[in-house]
Every structure is written in structure tokens, then in C-alpha cells.
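Hey L., structure's done. Input below.
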Amino acid sequence: MHQLTRLIYRVVNYRLLIPFEGRVDVKVREGDRVSPGDVLFATSSKKMINSFYVPHELGVKIEECSDYIVRLNGEYILKGEVLAERMSAGGLSMKRLYAADDGVLSLSRIEKGFVDILSENQSEEFAFDSYGKISEIDLNSGLSVETMVWSMPMLTDNYHEKPNEYKNIKIGNFEVLGDGLSVYVKKDLKESYSGKIVFAGRFAYPDLLRELYSRGAEYVIVYSMDYLDFASLNFSVGVVGGFGNIPYPKEYLDIFQSLKGVFASVDLEKNTIIWPDHGKYIGKSPIAESNIFFSQLKPGMYVRTTDVDNYRAVGRVVDVNNEEHMVMIEFEDGRRFFVGEETLIPLHI
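Output:
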């Protein structure tokens, strides 16, 4: 017996968590119904102007970064002032990290190797872009809206804070690097990804992911990457597809491209990406039941593999040998494999 799974699900009554940052003036009350464009709250907080990755700048280990900072957290810094320094070559020379802009020094990410320059407090309104009902307001953490959403499961994420449910939520408008199809490098990036949820393409290396965070990304998602690279990261990255050079279904690309610019939320505890549903993405059968069962696989079905050699790869069933419980599948790049039926999960695309 096989249970159908999906790339993306439509959830009718989803409790969407929106965390607060900085000082907040809430404009709604519990039980209020909200529509696209309604302002939920206004914030007064500092925005990132610049960011530096100290291990790269000074050639030190991440756990040692705080030892080389020469200014205080929250101190106002002028452009050109020294932020960190380290003696090298046996004390004959000095490596220094200089501020590139005026602003407030933030060491909130120093344990991850980053030093940030923030602006003075700026006021900003948060407007909702779908329909829903305010179900909870916690002035210390955030608010929740009961609404209809698209939900995409991630395979994994490598970093959970877990002090409370709101702290495990990352929000921002959804951004796609380039056309979302390639493997990107630093020269392909924009100057800033401040506050964005960024999809970094079909495969990514740690240097690119680190650079996206350095340019202000709130959270980074990638379809696949090398497992050893993933395991060595000291910052959070979501993997949607799997590890290694696995096939990249065009259906994922279609979804990501269609949702570009839409508000997105990532739940690190549930390993899901959420987009409020306001007609931006229309699936082939968006409200069909997700728990459909099949007694056997048939030619033409899409499947996801769980065998070691092609873990999480998506293909189409070409032929089925019911007597030996073997299935021939074809990946999007044309490769064909015989695999055991028990290693396949039927997939709705």
C-alpha cells in the first residue's frame, strides 16, 4: 500500500505565526477579521546596513571571534573605525576590520561569526496580504493569524533555537536567485537581501549561503547541497530536495518562480515553508485530499525515491514488474533505474 504525497499542500485553517521584532504597536485585536492590505502592527527597530563575516576577514575560528572585537555592542560606529583586529606574522603585522558605514554595532550574531552595522530606529508597518482571523496576540513574542496557506515540506534544517514557537519562525518576502535554475556564485547576487526569504537555486556551496546572510537574508533555502558541507555549517539553511547532485524537478522551479515576491514564513520546528494563499499559485488539483492510498504503482505516476543512491530524487514510473516488486523509473535527465517498489513514494505534481 502506497500513500500519495505532494510537493506543496493547501491548508485551509492554518495558524500562521508572525514574530515581533523591536518595539511594536499592535493595530488589531484578537478575533478581528483581516483582509489584504490591513495593517496588523507597526514596528520601530534597527535595520541592517552592513555585515561582516569575521572568520573570513581576520582568519580566525568562529568560536574565537568575540575575542578580537574592540568595540562594544550597541556602540555608535563611524565609517572607517576599527571593529576588530588580530596580530599576525608573529606580531609583525596587524589584520583589522573597518566599519564600511556609520551605524550601531550589533554583536547579536557573533557566535555565528557575523558582526553587523545597524541603522538608527526606523518605523515600519506590517500589512497582511491575505484574508484571515487574528487568533492570538502575545506582546512579548508575536501574533498569529488563522488563514489559508500553501505549505511545502522541507527535508531538513540544521539549526533550531527553540526558546519558544515564535523564535523558530523566519519571515520575509520570498526571493529567488536568478531564474532559480542554476548554481550561483557571489557575482550573481544583488547588493542587499535584507529581510528576505531566499531560494538559492538547485545546488549551493557554503560560501554563497554565507554571503546571502552577510547581505541581510532572513533565511536561505536551497534545493540540494553536499551533505558534508551542510553538516559543517554553523548557520541555518533549509534543504528542500536532498543531498548531492540529484535531479531537480521543473515543478519545484515553477512553484518558486510563481511565488516570487510573496510574503513567506519558514517554521524551523516543523520544517515547512508557508505562503498565505491569495491566488498567486494555482496547482493542478489544489484542494484534493492528500491522504490517497494506492495498492500498486502504475506507469506514468510520479514517485520520489528513498534508496541510498538516489535519495529524494523525483522520477516517473516507466514499467512495473508486479511479480518481483521491481519498478523502472525515469528521471528528468533521461536516466533510468530498476528499483524495489518499497523504496518509492507516489508523488502528486
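The mean pLDDT is 86. The helical segments are 54-58, 206-214, 227-232, 250-258.

-- N.
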